[in-house]
Automatic annotation (TrEMBL):
GO MF, one example: chitin binding
Protein name: Chitin-binding type-2 domain-containing protein
Domain Chitin-binding type-2 residue range list: 35-97
SMART domains listed in its UniProt record: ChtBD2 (SM00494)
Keywords, ordered alphabetically: Signal
GO cellular component: extracellular region
Signal peptide: 1-22
Organism, as annotated: Patella caerulea
Cell wall biogenesis/degradation keyword on record: no
Source superkingdom: Eukaryota
Length: 420
């Protein structure tokens, strides 16, 4: 089975909202020129910031088909890696001005006039501040007297006598891996980087996360396909037309389902280059509408191969007779192994539910009420990733699906209902 690729997301990234900061980040660089070199065949792409390791440029295709660039900043303590197109820990970053590779270098904290980063252990960035009324100079990495510089120092930095900067981020009541960010009086839920948890003391996500007791596991992306081709969770833009939804299919959940005619596909852009680790759940319902004799054609249902690369997760349908078929699902892991499972034969004229799960070293394919364990060497390895988005109804190396697909849900965790 050809399984297709995943995507990225990423250690948590956040958009710089302050106009003065945004203009500073773009000063002296041509963002549009950088984006011209960026691969945006999947609708968006990422490219390094030529000056600062903790920034990157997100390139997207606008409504006028023009590529637009937006500078974004990694979570504090992380640096950009162009190799994997993601914010990573400093020792994993390929940025040429990474202070953890060259400890003679310093990195300015762009949010204050007196803050900077050093790396003394070649592993983690250390936050520092100049003394009171001093400004940090990124030209030579030194502090100079400047009475106009009176920014409060960041927590846990060397300037311990300074008044701490007010924190506009707060602990999420139910999830250590999230926090609430107060913007213009509105609290917005944000994700921490994978493997980190929010610290109110640091006003940031730190690397001492304990995710064993996450209270809820809600869908990260949810396509009900009732009245439009939109993600109900609001996490992703999607490719597709609302006119594809049919409300005449009585077995569909809710008010409708998308009908795929062999030429259509729905794409979830936000899953481009996402890091899945080993906590993954994909669920959906489908009903085929295939005609003609069976020649063991494989039809794409859901995978992440929208950019003509091999998927790292996928579910496909193998037509075994004019009215029957089998479901195949699995993953490509970071150790290079491809692990899959296949269902028993099922009717192509009925609705079926499918769930693909990886929970640590265990993985399985569920079709209706049957569980098919996914076996293979090295299942403790994480799911591999690729800079492709999740695609519904179409996949690289597979026939385009014909039929109905409904209730597509993707979780970056495993709901309790699927743990038994």
């Amino acid at each position: 089975m050809a399984i297709l690729q995943t995507a990225v997301c990423l250690l948590f990234l956040f958009i710089v909202n302050c106009k003065s900061q945004a203009s500073f980040y773009t000063r002296g660089i041509n963002v549009e020129a950088l984006c011209e070199e960026c691969d945006t065949t999947t609708g968006s792409g990422y490219v390094y910031h030529p000056k600062y390791c903790h920034l990157f440029v997100h390139c997207t295709i606008g409504q006028d088909k023009r590529v637009v660039g937006q500078v974004k900043e990694c979570t504090r303590g992380l640096l950009w890696s162009q190799k994997v197109k993601q914010c990573v820990w400093p020792e994993e970053s390929d940025c040429p001005t990474n202070p953890c590779f060259n400890q003679s270098l310093t990195l300015r904290d762009l949010r204050t006039c007196n803050g900077y980063f050093t790396c003394t252990d070649a592993l983690r960035l250390q936050f520092n501040c100049c003394d009171r009324n001093e400004r940090f100079s990124e030209v030579d990495g030194r502090c100079y007297k400047d009475y106009a510089c009176n920014d409060a120092c960041l927590p846990n930095s060397s300037n311990s006598t300074a008044k701490l900067q007010p924190c506009d981020r707060f602990e999420h009541p139910d999830n250590k891996g999230k926090y609430l960010w107060s913007i213009s009086g509105t609290n917005i839920t944000m994700d921490c980087a994978v493997g980190t948890a929010f610290s109110a003391e640091m006003c940031s996500c730190t690397d001492n996360a304990d995710f064993v007791n996450i209270a809820f596991c809600d869908p990260y992306i949810y396509f009900p396909f009732d009245i439009n081709i939109k993600d109900k969770m609001g996490k992703t833009a999607s490719g597709g037309l609302n006119s594809w939804i049919r409300t005449s299919e009585p077995a569909a959940v809710g008010n409708g389902a998308v009908y795929f005619d062999g030429k259509r596909q729905v794409i979830a852009w936000a899953m481009n280059n996402m890091e899945f680790k080993s906590n993954f759940t994909l669920s959906f319902r489908f009903k085929a509408d295939l005609v003609g004799p069976a020649g063991e054609e494989r039809y794409a249902l859901v995978d992440n191969s929208d950019c003509a690369k091999e998927a790292t997760f996928g579910v496909a349908l193998l037509k075994t007779s004019p009215k029957t078929g089998t479901i195949h699902g699995g993953f490509r892991l970071k150790n290079g192994e491809a692990v899959t499972a296949s269902s028993d034969e099922l009717s192509l004229t009925s609705w079926h539910s499918v769930v693909l799960i990886k929970n640590g070293h265990k993985a399985e394919l569920r079709v209706d009420n049957n569980i098919y364990p996914i076996m293979g060497y090295g299942l403790q390895s994480d799911i591999d990733r690729v800079d492709c988005s999740m695609t519904i109804g179409k996949g690289t190396g597979l026939e385009n699906f014909v039929g109905y697909i409904d209730e597509v849900k993707f979780y970056k965790c495993v709901p309790d209902e699927f743990k038994n």
